[in-house]
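This is your field. Have a critical look at both lines of this record:
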Amino acid sequence: MDPISLAISALLGFIGGVVGGYAVRRVGLPPLLLLSARKERKRYVVFEAVTTERLTKEEVGKAFVGAMKELYGELGLMASRARLVEYDEGRRRGIVRVRRAFKDHVLGALGYVREAGGKRARLVPIATTGSVRRARRLIS
C-alpha cells in the first residue's frame, strides 16, 4: 500500500470516529455498530442438539455458522460476534456466546439448523444467561 492511500485511509478512519462519537454523545443516536469504550455486554445461549447420532464440536460449529451466514450474511455474523464456546458431546449440549443486541439472531439461527455434519440434527435453545458460569451449570 502506498503512503498516500495509507494516509487517506487513516484520515478517513479518524474522521469517522469523531463523527460517530459526536452522533452518539450530542445527537443521542444509538451506537448500533459503533465501537465504544465500554465493555461490550454478552449473552450466553445454552442449546441442546436433538439427534440420534453423535456430533462433534466442529460439526455443530460449522452448522451454526452456516445457518448464521445463510440468514444474516457475513456482516451479520461478524457484527454479532457469535461463536460456539463449548459443546459437550456426551450430553449433547452447548453454549454460544453473542453480543447482547444479537441474541434473537442466534436464537433464530439455532432453530434454522436441520443437519450438522451430514447428520440430521436440530439445535434447540434451552436458556439464555448473562454469565458463562451459569451457562456451564445449565449444561451439567
Observations:
- Residues 3-27 form the longest helix (25 residues).
- The chain has two domains: 1-38, 42-139.
